[in-house]
């Protein structure tokens, strides 16, 4: 459980709204529930915007009660639905959304989503002056300013579950498996899964694969058990990468199998960690609004929640050195 | 629990061996354990052949004790390792294997594997006269004479777990998902998963996909929730099939996503059903040997275990009409 | 997938209702969904009665649509809620329920529940003449006429998951664990879990525990690994039984630990098997009504669904010899 | 992934040993694997002591290789076995253990266990001067100096899985459930599970239960859905506590059900978080030895690993305010 900052409420609100945007992530429902319940506990009416920014544009906004978030903390996906709303990149559309909200008497907004969604939230807050708090909701853990994002822990465990299954076959057949996990620009899932899955190699987006990268792999029939290997490959931007690696391995005498874990990593009941994280972030989002923050994200740093300006979510801080941690651990454990 | 046939022991053996062959299937370890323990209970020494028929050829055969099968009933894969041994298609190699066994004083063999492995078992038994009992160990459930095979129930539940996750995203985004499950010649996993997963469509290997197959799917923005759909596609022999269907759906205005569940379906801890099935089949294999059977598979029909001649494992019996069951249920439930 | 009987529809209905009664069982939602969808496919309006027979008495009955059963096939519990309604044992109350139904134009009823609920269904059908089809929904698998009930497979897998965890500790500490599973009058869960969990002993409700029952258990410090043991105990009618056994074991020099799995066995997402079973039974319930059955349960025998008169659900048929199967397997595998 | 401290190696070792002691915790195997592999990477021979301190006394110590820790990262329990060794409280026995180790040429020890085990490690290091590094391995997370312990995250997720199941029944029947989770002196599991499980009440060891504690719970039949409630109770030191609460609730007109999760919380495959935590701690333990630490525990504080003197493991530091976090979150979310 991350440490919770002490905050002094100095503002008041009658009505706020909450939405989920971009790719869904396990724990989004727990976050929505926390926003709604904390708002109610603070005497604020809370509304749910459906389908992300699209619902702001369409006015698909409905009142939420304690009851409407009952029994959702354990569910994957998002009861508010989500969407990638390209229109919201236009300033005119953002003003239209602002009008929809103000017409309904809504004075502040909580946005749960990844970096694209938070970028939209930042523009909206800056231009319209409406207070907005963002929550990092993305399985990729690719918001540099925050050590943790809603959904990451669940995605890692889902990928691991698949990898534990694949290892059964790899070991039984003395075979090399290439397993692609999510992470287009980010190797966080691959790193965590690589260590936790006891992988033999991890190929991050920035890893340079060379002809001798996998030379330790045995192809000898007589060393059956050492023949099996698990290679974790981050999705990266090049869709063909895993197939190229497979091709290289074939040339070296292996019979690699490819598994692309894909969208299964997005769904499922959130882990305890993600439920507590999302619940904490949702509650703190409302507290941040009451404390006068209005263009910030709830982030995690050095084991504590903190208010990160939406302008700075792309700035990593040097102490939260997940990459270095991976490098130093990996060297020792392999 | 399937009914167990009454059998009269009329033979005796000093030593038997057991092997796992072909693709691994969850429950193989439970079957090996049952063969070993039943053999010991009947006063027979039991040996484990490593890496399937390859181990017969190489002489990679080791004595098994009650202890060597302790704590494996819940493990996926196979502690005996497995292999697809192409050499075993040659008669000379089969005779070589026979000699290896007889030199070690082994008088009978239990083979756990799919149809290819059982075909090898049949030839070996016919040619050499050594008693062989086969167990259907394959996640595909594609042995026509038997209603059930070791690993099928686990594979269905593993695929379902993935599908339950995918549905979270499909529902949250109003999106069409195409999910490929295993089954090259067999639609059993796809049928079971289609019904149990509440799928909207199931494409079996034999299904003819036409231009109007998916016409019920809504593309209207206003009917967001009805836009989501799950389409289960059996692997089939044409690797491009799922991509072709995705192409068709794109032309019709959908944005389908593809998930290929792949090898994750092979591994993992077996379900209770598969452990009981495998334990029963393993025990009965030894009982069949003692009762004088010698070129048979332990099959399941009408809720009971039975001895199926290895010559007849490709003959479906009309009562076990899984296909008809699927067709009639699917029509009603969709 | 069980074989589906061929049925000729000879009746028609405008409106039917469905309810869940007694202890909840995983798969009840899948069964409700199948009843509703099949009714709709057959042009019948379907109503959901809330809280079992209590809702019949109170008139808590609501129309169901295809949409109201969307996305429930994978959920544990019952969306219709359940209750043990003692009042329904009175004839006057049953007639009151009949009037409620006929006032709403409802012509037939599907009841999903255990033996108490099915006994109520039988009386209701006999007295009022309204056609009623029962579905065996109970984790205990204690309806003698049927080889399988909705929820049993899930409960077995849930118990096994707990037992696999407990074995980790038992093995690590060389310790004896007594694990109580559900089953007041029925040893089905205990038998299945005992075999699938690789237990050392299984105490069924009818097992006579004697002073020498557990004498094989080693207490020697030097045989650390053989000291660990798993003993599965069916709940039975005597709540103190497991504590008495623990007391006996203490006197023999063991330090047994007790785990009572309890209500966790009731809930959770149903397995693929239970979803397919429940979907099949729900669909067939409607087909049975249309074929003129009106005081029957959908049962499973010899691998096929069949219509079992509600008068005969307590009669076991000799072929479905789960008990004998357990006895003969257990002797060989232990 | 916690930040890894930079360390300068200034010592060297030829042989070290590792043991697991006290109650087993998921992730102990991952920690053992990391100690062994890091030692090998640093050119040190590593030995495994079986059955905790008992194995030190008995001399049950075996060489470990990269191979002997293959395929264990995902397994619950401990391959080294564990024991609570009361003898080790005697100084003479600790000197005997020291002699056993020095005779084998072992120069340092890594101890994985809870506070009792770490207290033994501290005495051993102080008295004999042999360098010892402790790892906090306990599901209870009750080492005040460290924010996290090996096994805690897994135990929380296991308890949550059970609670998600129980909620299905609680909701279906409108019933109150009391669920006891582990934690004799510590409410960490109960707090985390209470928030993540969406519980209605959490009773920590220090919570004072009064006559009006549960007065919000409805007993009205007409408010069926609000009747259900989940109350999480930490085990505490008073075994009867949960039964007393159940008695109170009965007097107030409820029909509470009791579930005691017990030992199932100890076992099972560790989560990704616990595998990474344990792998990191295991690797760093060896690095700490090489950097000259010799009476320390690897702890976690403010998102980073640190060297905590074994003398200070009972001192909480004010920033890691899990209790305050729980209190402030709980007030808002309930």
TrEMBL record, chains A, B, C, D:
Lineage, broadest ranks: Bacteria, Pseudomonadati, Pseudomonadota, Gammaproteobacteria, Oceanospirillales
InterPro entries reported in the protein's UniProt record: ATP_PFK, ATP_PFK_prok-type, PFKA_ATP_prok, Phosphofructokinase_CS, Phosphofructokinase_dom, PKF_sf
Active-site annotation: 140 (proton acceptor)
Subcellular locations according to the entry: Cytoplasm
Protein name: ATP-dependent 6-phosphofructokinase
Record note on quaternary structure: Homotetramer.
Keywords annotated in UniProt: Allosteric enzyme, ATP-binding, Cytoplasm, Glycolysis, Kinase, Magnesium, Metal-binding, Nucleotide-binding, Transferase
The enzyme's E.C. designation: 2.7.1.11
UniProt-listed PROSITE patterns: PHOSPHOFRUCTOKINASE (PS00433)
Notes on how activity is controlled: Allosterically activated by ADP and other diphosphonucleosides, and allosterically inhibited by phosphoenolpyruvate.
Record-listed substrate binding positions: 138-140, 175, 182-184, 235, 257, 263-266
Main localization of the protein described in the UniProt heading: cytoplasm
Cross-referenced PANTHER family: ATP-DEPENDENT 6-PHOSPHOFRUCTOKINASE, PHOSPHOFRUCTOKINASE
Catalytic activity as recorded in UniProt: beta-D-fructose 6-phosphate + ATP = beta-D-fructose 1,6-bisphosphate + ADP + H(+)
Residues annotated for Mg(2+) binding in this entry: 115
Cofactor(s) for this UniProt protein: Mg(2+)
């Amino acid at each position: 459980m991350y440490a919770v900052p002490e905050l002094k409420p100095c503002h008041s609100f009658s009505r706020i709204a909450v939405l989920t945007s971009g790719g869904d992530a396990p724990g989004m429902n727990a976050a929505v529930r926390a926003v709604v319940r904390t708002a109610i506990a603070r005497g604020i009416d809370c509304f749910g915007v459906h389908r992300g920014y699209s619902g702001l544009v369409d006015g698909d906004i409905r009142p939420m009660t304690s009851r409407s978030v009952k029994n959702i903390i354990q569910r994957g996906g998002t009861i508010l639905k989500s969407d990638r709303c390209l229109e919201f990149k236009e300033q005119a559309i953002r003003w239209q959304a602002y009008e929809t909200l103000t017409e309904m008497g809504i004075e502040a907004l909580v946005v749960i989503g990844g970096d694209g969604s938070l970028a939209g939230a930042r523009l909206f807050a800056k231009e319209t002056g409406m207070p907005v708090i963002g929550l990092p909701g993305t399985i990729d853990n690719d918001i540099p300013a925050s050590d943790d994002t809603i959904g990451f822990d669940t995605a890692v465990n889902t990928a691991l579950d698949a990898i534990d299954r694949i290892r059964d076959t790899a070991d039984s057949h003395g075979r090399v498996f290439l397993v692609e996990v999510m992470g287009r620009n980010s190797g966080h899932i691959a790193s965590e899964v690589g260590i936790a899955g006891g992988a033999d190699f991890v190929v991050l987006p920035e890893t340079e694969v060379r002809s001798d990268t996998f030379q330790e792999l045995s192809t000898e029939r007589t060393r059956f058990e050492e023949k099996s290997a698990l290679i974790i490959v981050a999705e990266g931007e090049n869709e063909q990468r895993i197939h190229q690696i497979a091709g290289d391995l074939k040339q070296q005498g292996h019979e690699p199998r490819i598994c692309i874990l894909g969208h299964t990593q997005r769904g499922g009941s959130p882990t305890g960690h993600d439920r507590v994280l999302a619940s904490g972030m949702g509650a703190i989002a409302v507290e941040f609004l009451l404390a006068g923050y209005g263009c910030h994200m709830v982030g995690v740093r050095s084991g504590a929640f903190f208010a990160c300006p939406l302008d700075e979510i792309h700035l990593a801080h040097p102490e939260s050195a997940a990459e270095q941690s991976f490098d130093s651990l990996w060297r020792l454990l392999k």
